[in-house]
Design brief:
Blueprint: E1 2-17, H1 20-25, E2 32-47, H2 53-68
Antiparallel strand pairs: 1-2
Length: 76
Amino acid sequence: MVTVVLVRLPGQRSPARLSRREIRRLDLPYGVDSVETGDRELRVRYEGWPHSCAAVDVLVDAAVHLAADSHDVGDA
């Protein structure tokens, strides 16, 4: 199973994908498998299924924080 968090971005982004090294550098939650942008969307893919509502909140918060830091993924 996988969990994907989608965040709608305020503007267009060129397609981009973070490397494993970049994902680790950003100190994202355990289990992040990939981070991609394209069009107006940020997709953060996690391995597995969250075990609680609090775990879902952590995953969503991390994705929203990443979307707010436009210099980390895609176009600045």
